[in-house]
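[Meeting: bench + compute handoff]

Bench side (C.D.) handed over the final construct sequence. Compute side (W.E.) agreed to return the predicted structure before the next meeting so the bench team could plan truncations. Sequence as handed over:
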Amino acid sequence: MTPASEVRLPNPPGVIRRAMAAHPRAVDVTIVVWYFIGSAFGIVLDVMTSWSWNEDAQAGEWGGMPLQLTWPWVLITIARILVIAAALLFRRRFPLAGLIAIVVVTFGEQGIQAVANGVALMFLVYAVPVYRSVAAGWLGYGIAVVGGALQSGVALLRGTGSLGGANPVDVFVAESSAVTSVGEFVTITVMGAIWLLAVLMLGINLGNRRRYLAAIIDRAHQLARERDQLAQLAVAEERSRIAREMHDIVAHSVSVMIALSEGAARAAAAAPEAAVDAMQRSAETGRTALAEMRRLLGALHAPDEQAALLPQPGVEDLPELVEGFREAGLDVALSVSGDAAGDRGQDLAIYRIAQEGLTNVLRYAGTGARVQVELQRDESRTTLLVRDFGPALGRPSPVSGVGSGRGLAGLAERARVFGGRIESGAVPAAEGDGWRLWAELPVNAEARGSEHAEREDELSTRDNMR
C-alpha cells in the first residue's frame, strides 16, 4: 500500500486553524477563562462606579452597591456566570441548548458584566450554524433576537412606569437599565438584531466552508482507499489465476509422470529400452513442470513486499482485519464462536464479506462509529453479522453516495457460489439505528471432514522434507 506521504492527501488549510482543530478542549477552556476574566473586570468596574467623590470633603463615599451584587441577588449573578461558562465550554456539542440557556439567564440587571455576557451570546450564535446546520443557526438567531426584545420590552415598561410602583420587575430591571421611550426600545432591538445577524452570517459562511472542505477531504481519502482496494482486488485476481495455472501444471504433469513411471516399471524386464524411454520422458515432463512453476512463483515474488508471498486470507485473519479498521478510526468489537468449517474458499468469502461491511461502515458512518462483528459457526452453517450504530456524536458527517453500488452485489454473488445468502438494510430506531449486513453460508461436510486429513498430509510432507 502506498504510504500517506506519497498519496499527498489534502489537509484543512491554515496552520493556526489546524492547531485549534487538533486541540479543541484547550480552545474551549481558553475561551471560558477569558470570559471569567471579563466578568470579574465588569464586577470590579461596577463596584468602582458605586464609589462617588465628594468635592467639599475631598473624600470618597459609597453611593450603594449595584443591585446584582447585593445579598441575596449576588447568588443569581454567580449562577449566571457559571451557566454561561458551561454553555461556552460545551458549545461544540450543545450549541443550541447553550444559546437558550444564555438567553434565559441574562434576564435581569447585569451592570457592566453585560458586555462579557453579550460576547458569550455572540459566541453561541456563531457556534450553532458552525456545529449544527444553517436551519439551526436561523432558529438560534430568532431565539436570541426575541430574548433581547423581551428584555428591552420589560425595561421599557419599567422606564415608562407602566408597571406602577413597587413590583417584581424592580428585582430584574434597575433604574439604569430602564428604557424610557418606544423609539429607544426599537433602536436597541434593531441594533442588537443587526449585530447578531452579522455574527450569524459569519457562522453560516464558516460553517458551510468547514463542511465543504471536510467533504472534499473525506472524498479524497475515500478515493485513495478505493484505489488501494482496487489494487488489492487486482492482485487477488491475478493470484487466483496463477493458482489455477499452478493446479493445471501440477495436476497434468504429475499425472503424466505417474503414468510413465508405472509403464516403465512394468516394461523394465520385458522391454528395457522402452522403460528407459518412458523414464526419460517422465524426467522431461518433470523438468518442464518445474520450469513453469518457477516462472509462476517468480511472478508472485515481490522483493519489496513480503506480504505478496502470503496465502489468501481467511477467518483466522479477521482479528488483524479488525485491528486495521480500529487504527482507521472505527470502534470495532469482534466475536467469533464455533469451530472452523474447513473450507478455505468459504473462509475467504467470510473474510471478504467482513472486509466489505467494515469498509462501508467507515465510508458511510465515518470515523468513531461503533461496530459489532459477530461470527457464529456450527455443524450446518456459518453466519456473519456486521452491524453499526450510525455516525458518532460530534463528528463531521461523512460523504455518502460515492460508492459504486457493486460491493453488496458482489458479496451476494460470492455467497451464492457457496449456496448462501446476504441480507442488508437499515436498523429500526427502536433497535438503536445504524446499518446491518448479515450473511449465511452452509457448511460443506466434505470440507469439514477433509480438514483433518489435509493437516496430516501437510505435517507428513514437512517431516519428509527434513
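W.E. noted at the follow-up: The beta strands are 51-54, 59-62, 331-337, 370-377, 381-388, 421-426, 435-442. C.D. will use this when planning the next construct.
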